[in-house]
Amino acid sequence: MRIPLSRLHLLAITLLGLAISGAQAEIRETSVWWLPRNVNMFGHTVDFLFYVILILTGVTFIGVFSVLVYFLVKYRSRPGVAALHSHGNNTLEVVWTTIPVFIFLGLAIYGNEQWTQMRLKTPPADALPVAVIGEQFGWNVRYPGPDGKLAKMEASKVNKDNPLIDSSDPAGLDDFTTYGELVFPVNRPIRLYLGSKDVIHAFYVPEFRLYQDMVPGRIYDFVWLKAEATGKFQLACNQLCGQGHYKMFGKLTVSTVPEYEAWAKSKAPSPAVTAVVPPSPVAMNQK
Q1: Enclosing domain of residue 156
Q2: Are residues 251 and 141 both part of a single domain?
């Protein structure tokens, strides 16, 4: 029995899709059918709000459509039964309007308070600063050296070769960079400095419940997080940024503190590059 060519094409596409999804599973460890596991300290609040809204809307959906089906059956057209006319019930309308108002106000107040904690609260003093600059189609990442300080970032400094860094700042002499690779130490606050070299990008890590647009000409220095578990994750650009948008992802690893320190040490520039050479002594003629 011969299999039609179109079915062979469909089978080949299916197998290719399975192969690609298998390869991506090494980057994203969790299921795509439900929320990925949360590893960020702020993610618990995001998940709580999600489940509260899901339960409220689910109960409302079931209740409304149950009443709808009941009314369709009870008040269906039947021979010899006159139609029932109703002009409404003011008390009932006030009740079912007031309850949603208080629910929405409660969600808005609680959500605004949590947003303040995530975005407007000053990050802890011991937070590790990490600069992430998006470009078509990759991620420029900059880490501080032993001094724990990043070079200043200025939008006016951006060009084809420089992702917003003030190269004249001495604090950046011991900084080191990676491309498409991020490593965060577990249980340590991370303060992100986000920017874009060209078009609008978005920093998006589902397991961190973290999303931030990055508009060219701006530096976003208010985003911070603290990972509570180790693992390997995927940093994705969540804004359509050009033809290569589909391949703009980075590998993000949350490791133990000793593992991060060893990794940072292996990436740091050699002392010969960062050291300041002292001036040579001048010999004085003795008379």
Answers
A1: 128-270
A2: yes
